[in-house]
Amino acid sequence: MMEFRDYYKVLGVPRSASADEIRSAFRKLARQYHPDVAKDKKKAEDKFREINEAYEVLGDPEKRKRYDQLGSTWEEGQEFQPPPQWRSGTRWAQTPEEYGFQVGGTGFSDFFEAFFSDGGGLSSLFGRRRSSGMGASRAGADVEADLAITLEEAMQGTSKEIHLRRQEPGKPGFRSQTYQVSIPAGVREGQRIRLAGQGQPAPPGGRPGDLFLRIRYARHPYFRVEGSDLLYELELPPWSVALGTHADIPALTGGVRLRIPPGSSSGQRFRLAGLGLPRKQGGRGDLYVTLAVRMPKAPTPQERELWEKLARASHPEAGQGG
């Protein structure tokens, strides 16, 4: 049996939390534990993966709805059995022993892969079997699994340690192997990395299948991705937007200082050329900064008085007639 993952507990929010509260909690924790800024990188990587996985589910309305169907009484570490309505899909029932193939080191827990992987069919924790095109009698099946990387890793390139457990035909038990997989700089989401001959074993005289690792970008505390471009929302108080200011903008390769001219408005977009992800045709995409005015939620009496004074100065006629 697999362990239940309490994603609300991971993000430190109640089950009644709004989408904004969940997003805010994720950003706060992701900034704290991002591997590029944490001192203990190994511990930070593990925590960042856990936070990212929780937000991958709770930050998606459909995934969150499915997760909430599992109930609220489970405790972390308790052996988990999904509710009866989930049994029809049979995905949850797959185990390495039943399937004969397991992929580890992908950045996702078995709980996530069994219930929330976007790959469909069997969980990518155990690989998704694909037809080899040579016939089952001549070749082992190809296997596909998701592999999560950060945007920084996509930008700079990295390597990942992948663990495979396979059941050899006609032999008891599993054979475990570890591979160091090189991720090239500029890799795109959805791109597949092929490990030739590392899929399902073949019958005698046949060729083993291949393992395909499909790249998935981990959620980032600052950016959203559109193709090769990065999108960043800059929250500023109204006086900074009206009077103009300078803001420090994060980037994948060091920050940049952006001048906000006086008289700017909420929703205004600024383009920082060449600060996005690598493009297929060469060069890099852009970083787009969108202004968002952050209004005070509970103004003090003094602040309210100043707002009213500003309103009268901006629209004298509004203050007439009581």
Kindly summarize this structure in a few lines:
With 322 residues, the chain is α+β, with helices and mostly antiparallel strands.
What is the mean pLDDT?
A: 80
Task: Give the ordered list of helices and strands.
Answer: EHHHHEHEHEEHEEEEEEHEEEEH
Distance between the termini: 69 Å
Residues in helix, %: 25-40%
User: Outline, from the CA principal axes?
Assistant: elongated
Portion of residues in beta strands equals 25-35%
Give a written overview of the molecule.
This protein folds into three domains: 1-72, Helix Hairpins (Orthogonal Bundle); 82-217, Urease metallochaperone UreE, N-terminal domain (HSP40/DNAj peptide-binding domain), CATH 2.60.260.20; 223-319, HSP40/DNAj peptide-binding domain, CATH 2.60.260.20. Strand 6 and strand 7 form a beta hairpin. Helices cover 26% and strands 25% of the residues. Helix 2 (19-33) runs antiparallel to helix 3. It starts with a strand and ends in an 8-residue tail after the last helix. It has helices at 7-11, 19-33, 41-58, 61-68, 96-99, 110-116, 151-156, 238-243, 301-314, and strands at 2-3, 79-80, 101-104, 128-130, 142-149, 158-166, 175-183, 192-195, 211-217, 223-226, 229-236, 245-249, 256-260, 269-272, 287-293. The radius of gyration is 25 Å and the shape is elongated. The protein is of the alpha+beta class. The longest helix has 18 residues, at 41-58. It has nine helices and 15 strands. The strands form five sheets. Strands 4-5-9-8 form a four-stranded mixed sheet. It has a four-stranded mixed sheet with strand order 10-11-15-14. It has a three-stranded antiparallel sheet with strand order 3-6-7.
